[in-house]
Specification:
- The protein has about 100 residues and is mainly α.
- The protein has two domains: about 1-55, no CATH class; about 55-99, no CATH class.
- It has three helices and no strands.
- The chain has helices spanning about 20-40, 60-75, 90.
- It starts with 20 loop residues before the first helix and ends in a 7-residue tail after the last helix.
- The relative contact order is 0.13.
Amino acid sequence: MAPSPPLGVVRFMVAFRHPSGARIAEIASLFPTRAQALAADDGTTLSLKPALRVPEQPFDADCVALVRATGRELGYSYREMISGAGHDACMWRRYFRAR
């Protein structure tokens, strides 16, 4: 377990998700200025440092089409969502069609 931060300190991570890597980069570039402005308005000191950057992880189009078609065939509704999976799915895609 990670040590607790000192009293009066809050640590958190922000994840930006979008199917376009260019859009993620744009959002990430705007974030520090906007976050600092919010902190200043509240009289809070804010320190930012990048922790991790993972590029978008597109799935294989045939796999996505199969899931859509099967859902329709079974009468299920569905909604496309951006996945933030950065664990097994990213590792296994090297061996199986997930990209």
